[in-house]
Here is the input.
Amino acid sequence: MLFEVSLFTGAIFLSGMLGTKHQAANQIALNLSALTFMFGIGLGVTATIRVGNQLGKRNFAYMKQIVKSLFFMVLVIEILFMCLFFIGRNYLPWIYINDTEVIQIASHLLLIAAIFQVSDGIQVFLLGLLRGLHDVWYPSLFCLISYWCIGFPLAYYLGLHTYLSSMGIWVALLIALTSSATMMFFRYKYLVRRIAM
Here is the structure.
């Protein structure tokens, strides 16, 4: 969690280097994304507890059922948020500000935020799931690689050295979250295969 939060903090600083309009738009998109992120965190904590309980009981069949149901729940919720961000991208920023230039920038950022809702929800859910399986070092390493070896350098380059500006920063966030979710998913599959042996 530390690496992800620090990456988003880094994105705030990079947006500030682009000017006040970009930073204001970044804050709007970040605030809305943080609200939806709480649902993923809640389901991740649920996964930690429920999977940890079944692992302790060595009830692996039921554990897999729990994982499938929670994963499906995360997927459905995050797809709903994705649709909300996509449909509301031109309207949600008006809650915060009435500056049309900021709203236009924020609507572009919310389009990218809409896409990464699924990645973000899945990666934080899988983080909790892996904790329940007593696996903390690999997920931490995956977060370090995804957010600070891939995400921040990309955000710096795409945000400050291409025409994408603040959109480039958010494209980098999307790539970082997706790479984290992918690595954690394959780690989970590996652990489940090992447990089943």
Helices lie at 2-18, 20-57, 60-88, 100-132, 137-160, 166-196. Residues 20-57 form the longest helix (38 residues). The radius of gyration is 18 Å.
